[in-house]
Amino acid sequence: MALTRSGIHHHISKGEGPAVVFLHGVTMDLRMWNAQVAEFGEAWRCITVDLRGHGRSARLESGYDSDADLLEVLDETAVGRCVLVGLSLGGYEALSFAAQHPDRCAALMLVDAWIPGPELGGWAPPFRVARESGRPAALEAWLHDPLFQGARRQPATWAALQTMVGENDLRIWTERIAKRPAPHPRELAPGITVPTQVLTGEHDLPGFRAVAEWLAATIPGAAGRPPIVVPGAGHLPPMETPAAFNRELAAFVEA
Length: 255
Description:
With 255 residues, the chain is of the alpha/beta class. It is built from twelve helices and eight strands. The chain has a single domain (2-121, 178-253), classed as Alpha/Beta hydrolase fold, catalytic domain (Rossmann fold, 3-Layer(aba) Sandwich). It is 39% helix and 15% strand. Strand 5, helix 3 and strand 6 (105-111) form a beta-alpha-beta unit. The longest helix has 13 residues, at 206-218. The two termini are 29 Å apart.
């Protein structure tokens, strides 16, 4: 385990193969990638990152810059270019980084990425509940969101999710902490030319499956390939169906 000089917590596996950086979903942390590190960590250089405001990383501060945080991780781990894998919020951050730092991103995998827009319909995280009723109410609403219906059917996955979310202060929702101004990922997607694979869980919410379709059709690096649908998975394929997800990940990284 290590911290960058700005306080971004990350873990590096012992492998000497391709550098693969994993970015987790909102309110989670790097532990959501345990099954991937367990399978590939001896062969690949797996770098799992706690996004700012999550896990053991520094707290959110006004004007925070996720791209700068990730760039610092790469610089301090001596990684020139990496395969970037992001789920949900991690997909949002991975897309932004790949578009603005193509010299540091060799390939991009977007897993049930959260990209705000019309495809999501009326779905949204519990922003209003968090700001009007506070953390306990937001925690209850979030853990019982339909987004996690698949995870709730798997005792081990559900327990791990509850632990990660329960340890998050939820300030990302309870307080209005603005990021550094940056282009929206919807503006950046048409400029991404690195090899890109889009994945979605078979049973994820319709809005997220629609986002996956939009990404696959919009990102030039996806080469017009439709999203890969992970059988049996909901919003969290790396945790809910790790064997199936890992097969797709290995095929992409080792292509």
